[in-house]
Amino acid sequence: MKKILLMGNPNVGKSAIFSRLTGARIVISNYPGTTVEFTQGQMKIGRERPFVIDVPGTYTLEPTSKAEEVATQMLKDGDVVINVVNATNLERNLYLTLQLLEKNRPVVVALNMWDETKHQGIDVDVKRLEERLGVPVIPTCGLTGQGIKRLIVRLQEAKALDLKPSSDSDKWERIGKIIEECQRITHHHHTLLQRLEELSIKPLSGIPIAIGVIYAAFWAIRFIGEGLIAYILEPLFAKAWVPLMLKLSVLLGEGTFFHNVLIGSLINGQIDFKMSFGVLTTGLFLPIAMVLPYIISFYLILGIMEDFGYLPRLAVLVDNFMHHIGLHGFAIVPMMLSLGCNVPGALAVRLLEGRREKFIAATLIAISVPCMAQIAMIIGLVGERGGQYLGIIFGTLFILMIIKGLIMNKVLKGTSPEILLEIPPYRIPQLTAVLKKLSMRVSGFLKEALPYVLLGVLFVNILYVLKIIDFFSQVFAPLLTGLWGLPKEAISALIIGFLRKDVAVGMLGPLDLTTKQLVIGSTILAIYFPCIATFVMLVRELGIKDMLKSATIMMFVALLVGILLNIIL
Amino acid sequence: MSIDLTQVKPGETGVIKELRGGTEFVRKIQSMGIRPGRRIRKVSSHFWRGPQTIEVDKARVAIGFGMAKKIIIELDE
After folding, report:
1. Helices (H) and strands (E) in chain A, counts
2. Which of A170, A178, A420, A422 should we substitute to test contact with B (largest number of B Cβ atoms within 10 Å)?
3. Does A353 touch chain B (CB under 8 A)?
4. How close B1 comes to chain A (CA, Å)?
5. Burial category of A35 from C-beta neighbours within 10 Å (exposed 0-12, middle 13-18, buried 19 and up)
6. End-to-end CA distance of chain A, in Å?
7. Which one of A253, A266, A471, A540 is most buried, counting C-beta atoms within 10 A?
8. Which H or E element spans position B74?
9. How far apart are CA B3 and CA B20, in angstroms?
10. Which residue has better confidence, A400 or A440?
11. Would you tell me which residues 9-48 of chain B have a C-beta closer than 8 angstroms to some C-beta of chain A?
12. Into which CATH architecture does domain A3-185 fall?
């Protein structure tokens, strides 16, 4: 046994079982299709250490989408298949099971979400089901870990049946008989949660609920983010780090090369974490005390919404609107993810079906959806000048999204495909699962971002010392000063923006800009180009040709918006 | 009386009588448990030819307007 495949319909809890089997730290989510990029881990059975692969969710082995194609491909080199089945939805899930049994691969069935069956008044005769299918069937609950040990033990009993291929109608007929024998449904009253489920996908009640949820989410993100900054991180830096840095400053001597790089410039003889721009001052303060708090609060709230199962409902509610901008409702998922970081957002773009749709979604995200690191910096810098200026920046981006979407929808050939989406039941999020996912995403941010921010700040200082920035300032002065009304030094922010957008926004700080300039600069930085990490990801998803087209649109839009804002404001 | 899914009112129940459309569409929608003979309940219908949501086999599925047009329902009396 070298390779164990976890296969099943979307949203049956495969990822939860995967992380139980391997102990690996991976994302567990509630909306369909999060595992299109498959995850691999290793488990221990006695002396063996087989690989476990979390195969993308699929309804059928006759592929109808990219994800299902991947799944079918992977089946070819698996040694054992754990077919994860949603016990509350047995009939539909068994279709894939029967298909798997025709592929001559050893199969065991994990009857997952076993705990939910009781709540829903469903009674499954496991022994009978096992007899009828001819392979081991083990009730499990991925979230609590119930049944996992038995699943591992009985993995040895996995059997390849090599059934003859049968027609669809034969399969459904067989499933019908199995269900009749093995499943009994008793009537039960709708719980409060189930009533809420209905209300949130009916338009008249669903839209007000959606507005309420989004408002509450943003309020909570700001409340937590600001709280962490004001009560924990700023005092920490002020009390613990400043004295240390002042000592180092004296030691190095103001004006020397190392002082400029590590501490930066002193403002009125003091260290100003937003202005000094040394590697050890701004370079540390920016990611840890300005951005990290919002990363924590955003991913906490997003994680709760994901695990609760709210996002697919939002997708249904916004479907109509999204069709006007060339997408369908499910595109809200990559967009929401992009608010955290554009990189996973770009990855999720692959969940969309067509090339046209991917192109539109990627372009809209890259231009109009700033990542949380960038948002945090804009709030930190522009927010001081007044909330209305934040409104101008984010309002501009939102209006741009609609205009560009409308245009692309008209200009690009084809239509956006229709939505066909299973809406999972609401589940009360498990605290441990939410925190596990949060800590994974936050440590991901620290690992990815911290080195790049420090490197970025170092890079800026070296560019300054070598007078390279001066050179570019002269070259681009007509564009920056003439058309956008920015000082020519702002070119440094645009250069660094290729590397990290948060550092780029931070670099506007020491330039002593007017509020108008700050607004224009922040808006252009959001639009003109994605950061390098997102760019690489988008090239992979779209191909270099489409990405170049998309990038051309971005730069053109940035040019135009900069000029317009300069005239209007 | 048979009508297509878009004409079923929220709250009404019925049985799927027929799926019209290409083999790919039929296969895809069948694999999600939406197939002739299944009992459904319409949950909601969104404005301006928006998605139609139904409950089938204890699962809820949102279906685009055009697709829903191809699903023929026999309403309960």
Report:
1. 27, 9
2. A420
3. no
4. 25
5. buried
6. 67
7. A266
8. strand B71-75
9. 12
10. A400
11. 10, 24, 27-33, 35, 43-48
12. 3-Layer(aba) Sandwich (3.40)
Name residue, tokens 């191909």.
A543
Average pLDDT score over residue span A428-451 = 85
- Contact between A487 and A329 under an 8 Å Cβ cutoff? The reply is no
Reported as a single tens digit per residue, the pLDDT across A381-421 is 998 899 899 999 999 999 999 999 999 999 998 888 888 98
Average pLDDT over residues A184-204: 83
Of B31, B46, B59, the CB nearest to A60: B31
User: Which chain A residues have a beta carbon less than 8 Å from that of B48?
Assistant: 320
H helices of A412-430, in order, are none
Are A112 and A118 contacting, i.e. CB atoms less than 8 angstroms apart? Answer: no
Contact residues on chain A for B46, CB-CB shorter than 8 A: 203, 316-317, 319-320
Confidence of residue A23 (pLDDT cuts 50, 70, 90): low
CATH number of the structural domain spanning residue B34: 2.30.30.90
Note whether A74 and A38 are within 8 A (CB). Answer: yes
pTM of the model: 0.83
How many residues in total does chain B contain? 77
ipTM of the complex: 0.93
- B54 Cα to chain A: minimum distance (Å): 10
Report how many domains make up chain B. Answer: 1
CB-nearest partner of A202 from B10, B29, B63? B10
Contacting residues of B for A96, CB less than 8 Å apart: 31
Range of the domain at B41: 2-75
Q: Tally Cβ neighbours within 10 Å of residue A555.
A: 12
State the sign of the Cα–Cα–Cα–Cα dihedral A140, A142, A147, A152.
Answer: positive
The residue ranges of every structural domain in chain A are: 3-185, 203-568
For A278, list phi and psi in degrees, rounded to 5.
Answer: -95, 160
Residues of chain B with Cβ-Cβ distance to A328 below 8 Å are 64
In the predicted model, what is the mean pLDDT of chain A?
Answer: 87
DSSP letters spanning B12-68:
-EEEEEEE-S-HHHHHHHHHTT--TT-EEEEEEE-TTT--EEEEETTEEEEE-HHHH
* pLDDT above 70 coverage of chain A, percent: 96
CB contact under 8 A, A320 and B47: yes
